[in-house]
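Lab meeting tomorrow. Look over both lines:
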Amino acid sequence: QVQLVESGGGLVQAGGSLRLSCAASGSIRSINAMGWYRQVPGKQGELVAGITSGGITNFADSVKGRFTISRDNAKNTVYMQMNSLKPEDTAVYYCYGDLITTYYTSSSRFWGQGTQVTVSS
């Protein structure tokens, strides 16, 4: 079964750092883009960061200069380093991966289970 498993969320004070990880497993042929959305109850989710298979990155304006994203293709894993965290970063972070599964040539989007990030002031 193809799945994405997230880890690294938790509680942190403003100004602190966290690193999220998201590992894909299962019958995977290759992976295109990976990244994270975040969602606060009562608000629309937003794209936080993404990274293409070639390593090109994209960030929400609100996190530019504070967050970085990287991937280890050999491990089918994406990482997001979150520095200088602010209370407004508090959200559930959902990893996504555009995965090409075995026997297929086009990708489908899979989602992680979500991980809570809480930043206190």
The mean pLDDT is 96. The chain has no helices and eleven strands. The two ends are 40 Å apart (CA to CA). Residues 78 and 85 are 19 Å apart (CA to CA).
